[in-house]
Automatic annotation (TrEMBL):
Biased composition (Low complexity): 28-43
Domain of life (superkingdom): Bacteria
Region feature Disordered, mapped onto this chain: 28-50
TM spans (from-to): none
Protein name according to UniProt: Carboxylesterase
Length: 211
């Protein structure tokens, strides 16, 4: 992965970056570690980094950017959940059986519903279904961050057919919240089909923004 954490349409890179942000946030979120939060993150030396995130990863990226703005150069938020708006009720209702009694079949059915009209990678679909059966999984949730307090450049990429979010409403709210931000709706994409859907178009927006 490049030092600046410039992820393109490479899903592994997105996951790695989001995981790094999650680990940093975990260190600084416990009461016992707050006095040494700066010391814990000081291991990351050098210039500011670009932080991308998809879905919950975007929420983590925003939380981290608000916690340590001196370490964040730019943000890329890909169909961010719980940042500018909550989940659509229909999405949560569809997810409920999977959350209550997770299984590979239910995960596959939920994914097929959300990604209707797209063609996600077969291997990734199998991985998604397998992940639903990991024992001792925990739901992680938190308060909505004050995105209006962000001062760095932000690129918000929304999935046109996302069933997790209402793309046009979230786009309007993101534009009002972030005057310095750029908001783009990616045609044909759904929440879970990103960043695999239309990688060339996604790449063009990312490279133009990150330079």
């Amino acid at each position: 992965m490049a030092p600046q954490c410039r992820c393109q349409a490479d899903r592994a890179c997105w996951v790695e970056c989001s995981t790094a942000v999650r680990k940093l946030r975990t260190v600084s979120s416990s009461p016992a570690s707050k006095p040494s939060a700066t010391a814990n993150t000081s291991a990351i030396t050098g210039p500011k980094k670009d932080h991308p995130g998809h879905s919950y990863g975007a929420w983590l990226a925003v939380k981290y950017a608000l916690h340590a703005p001196q370490r964040v150069s730019r943000l890329v938020l890909l169909d961010p959940t719980q940042v500018f708006a909550g989940f659509r009720p229909g999405y949560l209702l569809r997810a409920l059986p999977l959350l209550i009694r997770p299984s590979r079949a239910r995960a596959a059915a939920f994914l097929a519903w959300e990604t209707t009209g797209t063609s996600p990678d077969d291997a990734w679909q199998r991985l998604y279904a397998l992940a639903a059966t990991v024992p001792d999984r925990k739901l992680i949730a938190g308060s909505r961050p004050r995105a209006a307090d962000l001062r760095m450049s932000v690129l918000v990429l929304l999935a046109e057919h996302s069933r997790a979010l209402h793309a046009s409403k979230v786009a309007d709210r993101a534009r009002r919240t972030l005057p310095q931000g750029k908001v783009v709706i990616l045609p044909g994409a759904t929440h879970h089909s990103l960043p695999l859907t239309a990688p060339q178009q996604l790449n063009e927006h990312l490279t133009a923004f990150l330079g």
